[in-house]
Amino acid sequence: MFRWPEGLDRRPGEAKAFYATIAAATLGSVALSFTALDPIRALYWTAVINGILAVPLMAIMVMMASSPRVMGRLTAPRWMVVVGWLAVLIMALATIGFFVL
């Protein structure tokens, strides 16, 4: 994505940004272990937030995939758009069901 030299097969001098990212994630994880944060509860709520955000993001992707202005000649076929909207509907119902039940 950033076109950085990457991979554990490279030496740290060759892939500085890659190893800096790994080091930052490791240090952040170690710092979290010293807080009162329950990791299982954090994972649970992260999944809930992900499920809630998935519905509008999926809808935006379906709208973009079906837009000739955005996609040009590579617009998604009608059947794919219908399947995409069905997936959005199912995901929305599942999200609503989570809060109702």
TrEMBL record:
Membrane topology reported for the UniProt record: Multi-pass membrane protein
Bilayer-crossing residues are: 17-37, 43-67, 79-100
UniProt subcellular location: Membrane
Keywords, ordered alphabetically = Membrane, Transmembrane, Transmembrane helix
Q: Name one Pfam family in it.
A: Nramp
Q: Name one GO molecular function term.
A: metal ion transmembrane transporter activity
GO terms under cellular component = membrane
Which coarse location class applies to the principal site listed for this UniProt protein?
membrane
The protein here is known as Mn2+/Fe2+ NRAMP family transporter
Please tell me the species this chain comes from: Mesorhizobium sangaii
